[in-house]
Amino acid sequence: MKNKVPYRIYLSEEQIPKYWYNMRADMKNLPAPLLNPGTLQPLVEAELTPVFPTACVKQELDNTTRYIEIPEPVREMYKIYRPSPMIRAYNLEKYLDTPAKIYYKFEGNNTSGSHKLNSAIAQAYYAKEQGLKSLTTETGAGQWGTAMSEACAYFGLDLTIYMVKCSYEQKPFRKSVMGVFGGKVISSPSNTTEVGKRILAENPGTTGSLGCAISEAVEKAVATDSCRYVLGSVLNQVLLHQSIIGLESKIALEMYDEYPDIIIGCAGGGSNLGGLIAPFIQDKLLGKTNPEIIAVEPASCPSLTRGRYAYDFCDTGKITPMAKMYTLGSGFIPSSNHAGGLRYHGMSPILSQLYDDGYMKATSVGQTKVFDAATLFSRLETILPAPESAHAIYTAIEEAKKCKESGEAKTILFGLTGTGYFDMTAYQSYMDNTMNDYIPTDEDLQKGFDTLPKV
Ligand SMILES: *Cc1c(COP(=O)(O)O)cnc(C)c1O
Fold first, then answer.
1. Per-residue DSSP letters for 61-120?
2. Of 16, 196, 279, 362, whose CB is crowded by the most CB atoms within 10 A?
3. What is this structure's pTM?
4. Going from the N-terminus, what domains does the chain have, and what CATH number goes with each?
């Protein structure tokens, strides 16, 4: 008989995995390749290396190497804030009076306040190793820009961040944090790029979007010497780096003979969920176990639950490669929602393929219910969650309630991706009852689908 599971299962520094796991090596149906929008042919390495650091391009295109070694300098920086804790939600279980066992992997224990640092460190390291001087990127809610600023400060690289204008204005302190780490923040759309000028001319009052900021950051990187572009979600390489979350989770649970029956994660571009499920989906792909996997998205931006599985652009300016993914169309503009990290029109090609093949499910939830769950969770578990993360909390609670009805003592694991300290406007709006729960109509969605390229 094992000891009682503690509130927090801590791994030692030595237990931080030495390899990332590449799910593609075990997938029967691989995600469709990125296409060159001009020729509609699969992109080759030489077309991507002017945009991304070369080692990142190799990882992006590598469908066969099962385990990829984590470079020692990356592991050294991981040690500053990892292993991240695996927490047993005893208080939540007790409150729900459920026989279910609820675990969450908490990724908010670093200044960026989210899991994004796991991939930012890797991408900055590869850029430095290649001898590059600077990087560009975009940020919506601000977590990715902060994570990249931390990583670039650590490895000594300059960083320019295109921050979606509405966040730039609503979250001045996010901008300050990036500034402390040396990141140069530009409100997007801006007049520092051709695509920014074009978007401003067409639509002077625009408050920007993630897709538009991506267009600007890519243009800037390609036009600058010794500079490349980095992206914080969606891409295969990002899911690879985030597999550290799932690998650590599996080790922690094994120490107490536990294995999840249900794995839940919020899904914006799919990186935290892809990372959390990685070693468990390997078991599932190999037919060893069959955990239920649930992606949770906002009802206002339902790419898996209501989107199309089609080739689409990754940005609004349509200058990026095309990816086959569940998408709402690069022209889709979601109604205002406080989970900024979940407001992207598309979904990781890897997760899209797994979803299409029936390896995972998806559900969507409205904003007010998400904040009900976030508030309850804060009071019981003492962590103030990011609005994005609270989508997973909501669904974990729903599943635990089902266990109460059926009497089944299932083991539930969910990803608590980050903290919500920069989201107090959102929490205040929830407390003031001014939250918007708009769900797009089929006509709203059709406008986005109309922007899909004809491939
Ligand atoms: C960015 C972000 C997300 C969503 O991104 P994924 O790539 O889907 O993981 C979720 N939670 C937090 C805290 C984030 O910063």
1. H-SS-SEEEPPHHHHHHHHHH-SPPEEE-HHHHHHHT-S-EEEEEE---STT-BTTHHHH
2. 196
3. 0.97
4. 8-15+70-113+235-449 (3.40.50.1100)
